[in-house]
Write a structure and sequence with these properties.
This protein is α+β, with helices and mostly antiparallel strands and 320 residues long. The chain has nine helices and 13 strands. The chain has one domain: (Glycosyl)asparaginase (Glutamine Phosphoribosylpyrophosphate, subunit 1, domain 1, 4-Layer Sandwich), CATH 3.60.20. Helix 4 links the parallel strand 3 and strand 4. It binds aspartic acid.
Length: 320
């Protein structure tokens, strides 16, 4: 082949890679990596805003993540996280959460926690005050009590009514979209990374069922060298593929955050031999360079991004 034509071919393929990459991942914020917070769903926006406030007040990025998630947990209008969360099939609200610190790769998690509205903070205490990572059920409840957390009735009258209605209808059809987790990731100006994840899980789930959200590498993974990823969707489809761990590994291999999220979706679809549209798996991610990204299979999936310059809801790449 003519040398010039070959050179032209190489150059144009390089250009198209560059274009594809810039379309699939936000550019780094000038100078420093952060602060940058990204979270799942519209209720991620007030949460991320709180994270930035917490960071600016002198908190660590880990504090910021915890404080942001507590906003969603305390809001009874957010019916899939914390107080006001959707109960399980027995009419009991069981909460799942985990938190991870990229500065030391430490993590804490709780699952099927009853009566305590802030599982993210209980998870943090597991990380900081025990030599364990994961505490569940009655053990998590006992631990929360022992740590002095305040109890609260998590089932609101509205959720009780909806659950009763569901029972009346023989508990068959779980309302579509009756679940949504907050996964919130942050990076500060010194490129320290942390993340957290909190949910009441799938609506009317089997008593004791735990999804991806409190699982390290399932609903959340933070790799201090590379970046972080968080998930929302049908936990059973995410946890079988260690979805967020996979995204961090794809970023380690050079993918942008959005490309890595898409890569995980494609991997799950291939493994399950299903169309992405039938999976309900959605991800947010950020990398050590301060680039954020997101992709999902639910048309309704959105994410919130907050930096010093802006606070906005973004429409991620939807893979069907
Ligand atoms: N991933 C959560 C779970 O399976 C639910 C959700 O994010 O919508 O428990």
């Amino acid at each position: 082949m003519n040398v010039n034509r070959r050179l032209f071919g190489i150059l144009s393929s390089l250009t198209s890679v560059a274009v594809a990459q810039s379309a699939r991942g936000a550019m780094p914020i000038e100078g420093t990596a952060g602060p940058l917070f990204i979270a799942t769903w519209p209720f991620g926006l007030p949460a991320c805003k709180q994270s930035l406030v917490s960071l600016k007040a002198g908190g660590s990025v880990l504090d910021a993540v915890e404080q942001g998630i507590r906003v969603a947990e305390a809001d009874t209008e957010v019916d899939s996280v914390g107080v006001g969360g959707i109960p399980n099939a027995n009419g009991v609200v069981q909460l799942d959460a985990c938190i991870m610190d990229g500065t030391n790769q430490k993590a804490g998690a709780v699952a099927a926690l009853e009566d305590y509205p802030h599982p993210i903070s209980v998870a943090r205490k597991v990380m900081e005050r025990t030599k364990h990572v994961f505490v569940v059920g009655q053990g998590a409840k006992d631990f929360a009590a022992q740590q002095g957390f305040e109890k609260q009735d998590l089932l609101t009258p509205q959720q009780r009514e909806k659950w009763k209605q569901w029972l009346k209808e023989n508990g068959k059809e779980v309302p579509k979209g009756s679940h949504d987790t907050i996964s919130l990731l942050g990076i500060d100006a010194e490129r320290r990374i942390a993340g957290g994840c909190s949910t009441s899980g799938l609506a009317y789930k089997l008593h004791g069922r735990v999804g991806d959200s409190p699982l390290i590498g399932g609903g959340l993974y933070v790799d201090g060298e590379v970046g972080a990823a968080g998930a929302t969707g049908i936990g059973e489809n995410i946890l079988r593929y260690c979805g967020t761990f996979l995204i961090c590994e794809l970023m380690r291999q050079g993918k942008t955050p959005t490309e890595a999220c898409i890569g995980a979706i494609e991997r799950i679809a291939r493994g399950d031999r299903k169309k992405p549209a039938d999976l309900s798996v959605n991800f947010v991610a950020l990398d050590k360079q301060g680039r954020w990204g997101a992709a999902g299979t639910d048309e309704s999936f959105v994410a919130a991004v907050v930096t010093n310059q802006e606070a906005k809801i973004i429409k991620p790449e939807i893979v069907r």
